[in-house]
Design brief:
- The protein is α/β, with parallel strands linked by helices.
- Helices cover about 20% and strands about 45% of the residues.
- Strand 6 (about 75-80) and strand 7 form a beta hairpin.
- The longest helix is centred in the first third of the chain and has 14 residues, at about 5-20.
- The protein starts with a strand and ends with a strand.
- The relative contact order is 0.26.
């Protein structure tokens, strides 16, 4: 089981954590929503919960609850800039499809 980050995502997460002035890492998760069933959740973490799994990648801690890990195992988090748009992108090998707007996915 593993979660990885691209170099661009590592740089962006480090910058966010530095700007916040605190935090132990980035939480990745999923929630039930959207037209395809599930949506990704990103948030900064100040404390790791007992039920969390922690993956260290290139000096950045990625924290995932065990329920979400089933859907995110093998995922690479990337940070992409295209024209005026920029944001995190999930390269999830478990996703079988996405909705038209790209906000949700199914497995």
């Amino acid at each position: 089981m593993a979660i990885t980050l691209s170099d661009a995502a590592v740089s962006r997460v480090r910058a966010f954590l530095d700007n916040r002035g605190k935090g132990v890492g980035l939480r990745l998760g999923v929630k039930t929503t959207g037209c395809s069933g599930m949506a990704y959740v990103l948030e900064f973490v100040d404390e790791v919960n007992e039920e969390d799994e922690v993956f260290e990648h290139k000096g950045v801690n990625v924290i995932i609850d065990k329920k979400s890990l089933v859907y995110l195992d093998g995922t690479e988090l990337d940070y992409v800039k295209q024209g005026l748009n920029e944001g995190f992108e999930f390269n999830n090998p478990n996703a079988k499809g996405e909705c038209g707007c790209g906000e949700s996915f199914n497995v």
